Here is the input.
Amino acid sequence: MKPAIKISVLLIGIVTGLTAIVLFLINGLETSAECKKSIERLSKMHVEEISLLNDSGKIIKLESHIADNTRERADGYQHICEEVINNTTILFVYSQPVGGRFHMQNVKAPLDIGFFDGAGKLIRTMVMDTYDDGNKRRYHPGQRFQYALEARVGFFNEHKLSANKARLVVHSVND
Here is the structure.
């Protein structure tokens, strides 16, 4: 290969590599801006310290966003970036037991969900998958519930929170 052609091929490789790096950085900035915007959206929910009693009776205190009105419950984690989802929880609070179903439309990461009855007993936990596969599943515990806690996948196992053993300390949730 002639030296001029070698230099041209080398320059094309360098330009292609630099273009890939610039595009990666730009996409990273867009994601970061999107994530910042999603934090603002989530911040419309008030935050409270709630208490959970795990399987062995240990109290787990955590700061949780509280979705206690129709708008907040409808929004949930929709359009929230995965980084924020992995570092927050949302407690859905209903004034009385409901038979509702949860969906994952516009949710960017799979979630754990735990359903609690009016007395705070954990009824059931589930992993809710994103709709990346096109299957628009709805999630429900098979009975009425009054509270539902959404968290990153693995949250309930990590904290040893199992159905019929763990509890939400209801009086820790302010009205």
Remarks:
- Strands lie at 46-53, 59-67, 90-98, 111-116, 122-128, 145-152, 167-168.
- The chain has two domains: 1-43, 46-172.
- The domain at 46-172 is CATH 2.60.120.1140 (Jelly Rolls).
